[in-house]
Write a structure and sequence with these properties.
By secondary structure, the chain is mainly α. Helix content is 60%, strand content 5%. Helix 34 links the parallel strand 7 (734-742) and strand 8.
Length: 1004
């Protein structure tokens, strides 16, 4: 067989480069058959070859090991093909080659914690008794400590790589790595004590007891080959002042880090991370036990107790460490009863995937969906929820916790087995990836060569052949999917088993345990939630069977919402309304997007939930984005005309018109919740629905009035305010004016009376109760307060009356109000004439200083008089500082001043007007951007308040729960209500500064 074919058969990837290494002089005395036989055991033959050539150059005796029998050189080739970093350690410290002369075992043993501690202390020439002091210090001690640590690491790696089943050996490897880290910390502390002797009296140093508490994977004894070691330091010193003891304790702790990771000829081991201590980076490095307990009892966040789940004394004074463990244990196991526990759990879930760079998301072993953090989160949460009353769950390691949860009946045996196997598999992949360069990484390789090497390294010493990259990818993806599915199955299926009395094969929780689990997941009324689950799943109907299948996922989606209890109640009512409707259950089964969208709505919006309950057929829209596209005004009007033609009676026609408006409002709200519409599009769509309803009401009213008398006039409804700008919110009143024009020959007084009768009928038809009732309707209230002379003037005027009024009596505020006038319903000819009449009024050639002062005076009066007494102006969305009114008044003042000369300003909508203001250079672009952002955010929050079902839509909520709900509607992540609050207060503060500068003229 040619050399090239032999290389290919052995698994080499870079044939040209490896051929050059095979020709190296260092390999002249090497037997080729023994060499290639060894490479068959290497995960990465290319890497093994390069490291071997370098190693022989440093240690020529390695040739004899290569030429030895296959069993004798197997350890060498497995190591060189798996870890370049450990090969380089051998080159630096050839005295450790003896570890590669040992035969491998399919079921390796382990080195005990005591043996490791004694060895590391011996390396720095310290005794093995309590509070040992090293006889080596400085660089000499650091090199000795690190070299001895890496000798033991090399020994473990060789045993690990020779195991027949790396997943079976994983817990032992994790324990030994954690014990080795603990031994290194013990030796580093001994060195630190010796180094402090130059600065402090020996009796003071010996008086300070220091315990090193391991956290995270170090505390749980499931450490990686390379990882930060999370620690907390506890001190105690009898006979020393507290400040003095703290100073010495801090110096001891700093000395530990120095010995472990300061620069030296032998590279650092790992980072000693102390950020989990009380107050994090801002807190003191060391504390007494009493200080720790005072902090945990008074100030600690819920996540800190979750972190303490792994706390373990791993170095230093063992008795002090034991007392720390005993002191914090009750706090850990009662943390699920603390205020904010649910929010903390939700924050834990968010941390699973947040802050992952987009380029890494698909490659993450740890943080990505279906990764290690998913398993750890699932297990830890179940421990915290049920460990309060079940002490068998109070274990630190993940695999041990899975077994305990299964033995105690909190996880089904099959689920526990799959979760355990998945976790071990992912951890083995993580170990093998890190072992190559001894670097912290949780990313799967991208190229096929690296994936093939990883597949071989993780397959076990007895696995035949060399697995392919595609096979590894498939197994990894299958494991990720399994882990995500197990999360829902483990959390929620036992709840259904408890509620629905399923088969004995299913895990069944006690009522107390089931309610504790629901409470931990965010359900405020766990007992009520269990009743809903029972009602949905009990029985043998197709609906009950399918909902037993679907509810584990649906409950998880509901728990992600702001109000899971309301969401579950809404889901129950909706399901009962739709009964066994085939499309509803099929949609939930076949469309995860529709199911997730429904759960998000039900748990976040009382407004939409109420509408869905009375219009359950609209749930079908959730499965298709095209069904959520707002229906244009023209199509709505065509449908209304069709309804009126088939239902000539006024009451019937108006009920159908109002049902159409309710339907379209629901469609818009669902589309809004799905992120399919911008705030501008929402306002325009809602305005179109109102316009169609008003036009329908006008036709019905005219039909009623003209049926009993001759037609004497034509009528026009003019939209004003935000309705005129087509930028309304959900359920907004419609500001309007009414205009009529008597027909030729009609008596003016009779025509006026007829117009008033029609106008009265329009409002009645839109607001009076229907039979049957239009349930959950937001009735449309028409407000004519912006008409000439305000509420003191006639409700409806003739066109000529308007002409006379505007020519003689019009005030500047009325011209300002007309800026947003837009025909809404009625005679097209009259609309054209009315707009021609008011254009010179609202777009005057000149605005006098007196008029400007009057606009400012009225605005100041509105601010002073219309805000509710005691209200915080900074939180008022409409009339508050920098809110909607501020922005709109400045825009309208600029329109009054400049629209005559700049036609682009002649718009009824705020945002297009701002665009025109910026384009014309009337305000700096930066200031326009400030106004735009503030206006959009205030509008969005106002809509969110209505959608959520808040009592006062014009106020930024103060409660965290309401803020979080509003924030989610506004596009923020879960738990970011405080971020929304900060953004709104900042944006409106900046907007108010712009208003004061340009509207009131301050600083100009």
């Amino acid at each position: 067989m040619s050399l090239t074919r032999r290389m290919i058969a052995t698994g080499f990837q870079d044939l040209e480069k490896s051929a050059r290494f095979l020709a190296a002089s260092e390999l002249e005395r090497v037997d080729e058959d023994a060499l290639f036989g060894g490479f068959n055991n290497s995960a990465d033959p290319d890497l093994a070859l390069q490291s071997l050539v370098r190693l022989i150059g440093r240690i020529p005796e390695v040739v004899e090991l290569v030429n030895a029998a296959d069993e004798r050189n197997e350890a060498l080739f497995r190591l060189l093909g798996a870890s370049e970093a450990l090969a380089e350690f051998l080159m630096r410290h050839p005295e450790n080659m003896d570890l590669l002369h040992r035969p491998l075992r399919a079921e390796p043993g382990s080195t005990g914690a005591g043996e490791l501690r004694a060895s590391l202390l011996d390396a720095v020439r310290a005794g093995s008794g309590p509070a040992p002091v090293a006889r080596l210090t400085g660089t000499e001690a650091y090199v000795a400590l690190r070299a001895r640590y890496r000798r033991h690491l090399l020994d473990l790696a060789v045993r690990d790589l020779g195991a027949a089943s790396p997943t079976d050996y994983l817990p032992s490897a994790g324990r030994e790595l954690a014990d080795l880290a603990g031994a290194a910390l013990e030796a580093a502390l001994a060195v630190s004590r010796a180094e402090l002797a130059a600065s402090y009296p020996a009796e003071e140093i010996s008086a300070v007891k220091l315990a090193v508490i391991g956290m995270g994977k170090a505390g749980a004894r499931e450490l990686n080959y390379i990882s930060d070691v999370d620690v907390i330091y506890v001190i105690e010193a009898s006979g020393l002042p507290e400040q003095r003891a703290s100073t010495i304790g801090t110096a001891l702790a700093a000395g530990i880090s120095r010995a472990i990771n300061t620069a030296a000829p032998e590279p650092p081991l790992w980072e000693v991370d102390t950020n989990l201590r009380p107050e994090g980076k801002d807190g003191p490095l060391v504390r007494t036990l009493d200080s720790h307990m005072n902090y945990y009892q008074r100030w600690a966040h819920s996540w800190e107790f979750q972190a303490l789940l792994k706390a373990r004394a791993m170095a230093g004074d063992p008795e002090l460490g034991r007392r720390y463990e005993e002191a914090v244990a009750p706090l850990i196991w009662t943390s699920s009863e603390r205020d904010g526990f649910v929010e903390s759990v939700q924050a834990m879930r968010r941390r699973v995937t947040e802050n992952i760079p987009a380029s890494e998301e698909a490659r993450q072993l740890k943080l990505g969906s279906g990764g290690l953090r998913d398993v750890e989160f699932t297990v830890q949460l179940l421990q915290l929820v049920h460990g309060r009353i079940d002490e068998s769950l109070r274990v630190r390691g993940t695999t041990a916790a899975i077994a305990a949860l299964s033995d105690a009946g909190y996880i089904g045996r099959a689920d526990a087995r799959e979760l355990d196997e998945s976790y071990r598999y992912l951890r083995v992949l993580e170990h093998r990836i890190q072992m190559v360069h001894m670097r912290r990484t949780h990313l799967m390789p991208e190229n096929d060569a690296a994936l093939r090497a990883l597949a071989k390294a993780s397959a076990g010493a007895l696995a035949p052949g060399r697995p392919g990259a595609d096979r590894l990818r498939e197994q990894w993806q299958r494991t990720k999917r399994l882990v995500r599915g197990l999360h829902e199955s483990i959390f929620y299926r036992p709840l259904l088993s408890t509620a629905a009395n399923l088969s004995a094969d299913e895990v069944r929780l006690s009522p107390e345990a089931a309610q504790a689990r629901l409470a931990a997941l965010g359900y405020a009324d766990p007992r009520g939630a269990m009743r809903h689950i029972e009602a949905l799943t009990v029985g043998v109907s197709r609906r009950a069977a399918l909902q037993r299948q679907l509810l584990p996922v649906l409950l998880a989606w509901l728990a992600d919402g702001v109000d899971p209890d309301a969401g579950l109640l809404g889901f129950r009512r909706l399901s009962e309304s739709l009964g066994d409707t085939h499309w509803y259950l099929g949609m939930l089964r076949d469309s995860s997007a529709a199911g997730e969208r429904l759960c998000s709505i039900l748990s976040s919006s009382r407004f939409i939930t109420d509408l869905l309950e009375v219009s359950p057929e609209s749930t079908a829209w959730l499965g298709s984005d095209k069904d959520l596209v707002p229906v244009p005004f023209e199509a709505q009007w065509q449908e209304i005309q069709s309804k009126m033609s088939r239902h000539p009676r006024a009451g019937e026609a108006m009920r159908l018109i109002r049902l159409i408006r309710r339907r379209e409002m629901l469609r818009i709200a669902i589309a809004d919740s799905a992120g399919l519409l911008s705030q501008q599009e929402v306002g325009r769509a809602l305005a179109d629905a109102d316009r169609a309803a008003v036009l329908g009401a006008l036709h019905v009213a005219e039909g009623e009035v003209f049926a009993g008398s001759e037609k004497l006039t034509e009528l026009l409804v003019v939209a004003m305010g935000r309705q005129g700008g087509r930028e309304i919110g959900y359920g907004s009143d419609a500001d309007v004016m009414y205009v009529h024009r008597p027909l030729p020959g009609a008596d003016p007084a009779a025509a006026q009376a007829q117009a008033e009768k029609i106008v009265a009928q329009i409002s009645t038809f839109l607001q009076q109760p229907c039979t049957p009732a239009v349930l959950a309707e937001r009735t449309l209230v028409l407000d004519a307060g912006l008409r000439p002379e305000g509420r003191q003037g006639p409700l409806v005027r003739s066109l000529e009356s308007y002409r006379g009024y505007y020519e003689r009596w019009s005030l500047i505020w009325e011209a300002q109000a007309l800026l947003r006038a837009r025909p809404m319903a009625g005679s097209d000819a009259l609309a054209k004439d009315f707009m021609a009449l008011i254009d010179p009024v609202r777009y005057p050639q000149d605005v006098s200083p007196k008029d400007i002062r009057e606009v400012r005076r009225i605005k100041a009066r509105v601010e002073a008089e219309r805000l509710p007494r005691g209200a915080d102006p900074s939180r008022q969305l409409k009339l508050g500082r920098g809110g909607l009114s501020d922005v709109e008044w400045l825009v309208q003042l600029l329109q009054l001043q400049h629209a005559h000369a700049i036609p682009e300003l002649r718009t009824t909508a705020t945002l297009p007007a701002l665009d025109a203001i910026e384009a014309a250079g009337l305000l700096p672009a930066a200031d326009v951007s400030i106004l735009r952002h503030a206006w959009l955010l205030a509008s969005r929050i106002r809509s969110a308040n209505v959608i959520r079902g808040g009592r006062n839509p014009d106020v930024l909520p103060a409660s965290r729960r309401e803020l979080d709900a509003v924030a989610r509607w506004c596009g923020y992540g879960a738990g970011q209500g405080g971020v929304l609050e900060e953004d709104y207060l900042r944006d409106t503060r900046h907007a108010r500064a712009v208003i004061e500068r340009y509207f009131y003229g301050y600083g100009t």
